[in-house]
What we know:
The complex is a heterodimer.
Chain A (H helix, E strand, L loop, with lengths): L5 H13 L5 H18 L6 H8 L10 H41 L5 H27 L3 H26 L4 H24 L6 H21 L3 H33 L6 H26 L8 H4 L8 H7 L3 H16 L25 H25 L2 H6 L1
Chain B lengths: L4 H5 L2 H12 L2 E2 H11 L8 H13 L3 E8 L2 E8 L1 H24 L8
Antiparallel strand pairs in B: 1-3, 2-3
Amino acid sequence: MYCINEQQIDYILNDISARGVEMESLQLNLLDHICCIIEQELEENGDFERFYRTIIPRFYKDKLSEIEEETHLLLTNKNYYVMKKVMISSGTFSAAALTIGIILKYMHAPGASIMIVLGIGIASLVFLPLLVTLKVKEKQKSKDKLLIVLGSISAIMMSLAILFKIQHWPGANVMGVLSPAILALVFLPIYFFGGIRNPETKVNTIVSSVLIIMGCGLFFSLTMTPAGMKIEGIRVTSSYLRNEDILKNEERQVAKLAKTDSINAVAVTASKNVLKTCEDLKAELLEYATGVKALSSDFESRNEIIGTANVQDFLSIRESGPGKLKAVNEAVFYFNSLHNIKPIPVTWTILDQSNNQYNNKVYMALNDVIQIQMLALQNQRALYESGGQKELVMQ
Amino acid sequence: MIYSSELIKGTLKTIVLKLLEDNSRMYGYEITQRVKELTFDKIQITEGALYPTLHVLEEDGLVTTELEYNGKRARKYYSLSPEGKSKTKERVDELADFMNTMKFLLDIKTQTT
């Protein structure tokens, strides 16, 4: 029996890895196997190197690294079937969930939101990535692989952008612009110039490229440009300032009346409290949306524009937000409980929690608040004009 | 007659599992030698097929491994996991059934040598 020394073990190990076997456990397997063969088959004073060279071809057809390739192939093929199963079931589930979600949404039934989120979420985070992984494996050329990856990144981003948009999560707009941008500026050139050269794929390439440009173009036609958003913001802000002007005028008128009469203490105080808490809430909302507590007529040059900020974010980001809203709510509730006043209607305003008004934009909330203030002022005026006699009796 | 590698490929997992069931723990070279011995050299498992299969069995959790070092050399012993034990019976039964079906399908009546 031949006895192998340490140097010869190193020699074998080096040779195995030089021949492309990189997995450590496979190296150990082969090393031990080769040693066993040598020990069993080589006579005691035989030529180690020559014998090694004659037995090593037993392990392969063309080259030794075949063993490693075969191992990888078997291991990935095993995952292949699991991945395929998961892909099919996740795809079916997300399509069904999205369909049910949309039907529920149109019926205005509960559960619509969760089904839509599940549908889009699973489609973009489970189904599409699995689809890409499987498709990439099928393609031979690295350019084809790159195209699949780029295309699906764009698709995943687009569906996530829509999901984030409807859920009012941050980052929706960035993804919504990046997705078609990747498609048009990175995917398209690689695809177009790759396919146009080959006469077989030429027509298909041109048609698909036109479709991609049309798709991206239609999408960008639908979206608001930054300039458009600014104009919209200016429109909204100047509308707010006009309302604010009307309110201030009304306040001055009522203040004049107040000097002639001062007996409607309870209701007047309640009304004044509504006005005061509303002012606080408005300042808070304005500061959140524009950075300043009050706007002046040159808001445009100062770039203090009420944009598309929404109330839900305001309430979760600004710590004092919910408190200010609660104060208005309590003041209005108390005012409405008094006699001889005309109650301020709050349904479908920012104070109405039952209709999910928190999803509204800040500028709409500001409008609601001003209207509440106007109604309180008109009540105050009526009280002053009627002299407040009845109210004194009732209280 | 030495059987073609295609025939052996489909049954290699079953052969390895059955050998491990009978011998509690074995290493790669031992497996190839034992198969040769038991089949009078008719089945010769190639290293290129054996080690990838052993890796898959390990990945699937059907076999467990122990490394034993002897200087720079390490010998990897394979033995059946509890899951592997039940799987072995399943696969041997499946193969037996398959062979019966094949006999019928190919109309093999008597054994020829």
